[in-house]
Amino acid sequence: MPPRYFPTRGHLLLCQGQNCQARGARLLHAALWKALERDALAYYKTGGTVRLTESGCLGACAYGPTLCVYRERGGALEQGWYGAVDFPLARRVAQAVQDGADLPAEGRYGPDL
Ligand code: FES
Question: I need a surface site. Which of 2, 15, 38, 84 has the fewest CB within 10 A?
Answer without folding.
Answer: 2
